[in-house]
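Milestone 3.1: sequence recovery, worked example.
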């Protein structure tokens, strides 16, 4: 029996029917030469069904004790409740795949069982096969989920015996199995150690919270406070319905743009999102006068573990009130650097406690809804590092890896992306009823990158003309 950390327990407390707290991924597989789709699917599904003894943490279910949640081994594990084979209706376009993914992602996981599911989906008209997985955020964060994916794939198309993620012995950072002699005294000792760590962080956290409360965006335009995010259509109440959209962009293209503008890749990604949201809200005649604020998760993971949550959160000014793309990306970069400089002088525990304190208003609203007009951010934008090289799964090429994240009440849109094989793969998740025409955001993201590329080109030409005239 192992106690969940306070952060992991929070994801259980936040969960409601309209707010399931799992993260997912949609993987596209291209069967190798000499294989038909039907033969590949038949073999892979049959092989995966033989792995009916999962490794930790995928064999663990929840148990409540002493007012806390713990992981315990599931003695009645049934693979059929977790692994399912589905076929798309004709014509089997990507549209039908995303509609099915949206429905699967909207359903909460059963807490009486280990908190994960996996689906093999065939019937795509282009012959590809999809693998959709979802895992509760109390079990893994986005970075851990990506590590789990990498270890469940192979570097060579000829490797045909790779076990699925739930039975892969190479997964490290596994949760500790229960021990027969572990009683109340041990559980209390675990709780005491956790409390001790938190108490030791209080002086530094109190100092940084005090500094933040005295700062304002007026006194320091690069500081983003927890009360400056404007109300917008992005922050309406959500239902249980979901809409998933996905698209890839060339990493080289985005890096070239970042180099030309002397920015980071993440700065360009946030500027693309800021531009897309500005255009989207202008079309709805609903652009706030103040700039939108994004919550950007930053990994604090310093080891190679694959479970639990080790993530801090910073606030970024998306500069959606700014028309000029260069001015917008400069404002975004300054606001991100401001938070990073603050975190640089803090330990991991101090950072997480500082964030928890400063995000208290939003956390209280998520739990109670008592102050819906006060919010710390308008949208979550997360960039998860992924594999840089091509991967394979039992003879099929991994052709795409798209994250499918979660939504919070009052946060009707989430943008998550991960890198894979020279691409940045964007996964957008929205409340179907709250966000009209959400798919148009994909085109607006492309438009945002184009305007940055054009601005960078114009700046380079201006510098050339200046040097020639000199």
């Amino acid at each position: 029996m192992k106690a969940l950390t306070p952060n992991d327990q929070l994801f259980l407390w936040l969960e409601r029917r309209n707010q399931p707290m799992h993260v997912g991924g949609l993987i596209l597989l291209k069967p190798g030469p000499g294989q038909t789709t039907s033969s590949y699917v038949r073999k892979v599904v049959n092989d995966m069904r033989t792995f009916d003894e999962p490794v930790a943490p995928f064999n663990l279910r929840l148990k409540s004790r002493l007012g806390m949640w713990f992981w315990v081994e599931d003695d009645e594990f049934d693979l059929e409740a977790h692994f399912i084979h589905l076929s798309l209706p004709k014509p089997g376009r990507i549209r039908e795949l995303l509609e099915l993914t949206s429905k699967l992602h909207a359903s909460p996981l059963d807490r009486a069982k280990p908190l994960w599911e996996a689906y093999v989906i065939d019937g795509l008209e282009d012959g590809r096969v999809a693998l959709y997985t979802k895992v509760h955020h109390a079990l893994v964060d986005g970075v851990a989920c990506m590590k789990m994916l990498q270890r469940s794939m192979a570097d060579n198309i000829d490797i045909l015996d790779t076990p699925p993620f739930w039975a892969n012995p190479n997964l490290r950072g596994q949760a500790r199995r229960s021990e027969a002699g572990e009683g109340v005294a041990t559980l209390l000792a675990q709780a005491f150690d956790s409390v001790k760590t938190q108490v030791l962080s209080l002086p530094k956290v109190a100092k940084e919270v005090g500094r933040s409360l005295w700062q304002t965006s007026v006194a320091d335009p690069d500081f983003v406070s927890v009360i400056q995010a404007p109300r917008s259509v992005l922050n309406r109440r959500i239902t249980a319905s979901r809409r998933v959209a996905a698209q890839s962009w060339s990493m080289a293209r985005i890096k070239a743009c970042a180099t030309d503008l002397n920015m980071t890749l993440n700065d360009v990604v946030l500027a693309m999102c800021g531009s897309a949201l500005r255009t989207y809200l202008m079309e709805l005649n609903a652009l706030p006068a103040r700039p939108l604020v994004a919550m950007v998760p930053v990994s604090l993971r310093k080891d190679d573990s694959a479970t639990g949550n080790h993530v801090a959160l910073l606030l970024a000014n998306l500069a959606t009130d700014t028309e000029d793309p260069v001015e917008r990306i400069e404002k975004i970069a300054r606001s991100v650097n401001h938070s990073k400089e603050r975190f640089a002088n803090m330990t991991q525990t101090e950072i997480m406690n500082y964030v928890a304190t400063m995000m208290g208003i939003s956390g209280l609203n998520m739990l109670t809804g008592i102050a819906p007009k006060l919010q710390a951010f308008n949208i979550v934008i997360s960039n998860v590092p992924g594999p840089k090289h091509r991967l394979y799964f039992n003879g099929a090429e991994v052709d795409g890896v798209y994250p499918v994240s979660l939504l919070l009440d009052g946060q009707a849109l989430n943008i998550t992306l991960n890198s894979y094989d020279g691409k940045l793969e964007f996964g957008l998740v929205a409340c179907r009823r709250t966000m009209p025409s959400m798919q148009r955001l994909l085109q607006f993201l492309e438009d945002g990158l184009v305007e940055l590329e054009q601005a960078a080109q114009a700046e380079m030409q201006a510098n050339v003309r200046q040097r020639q005239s000199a």
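The chain has twelve helices and 15 strands. The longest strand covers residues 22-31.
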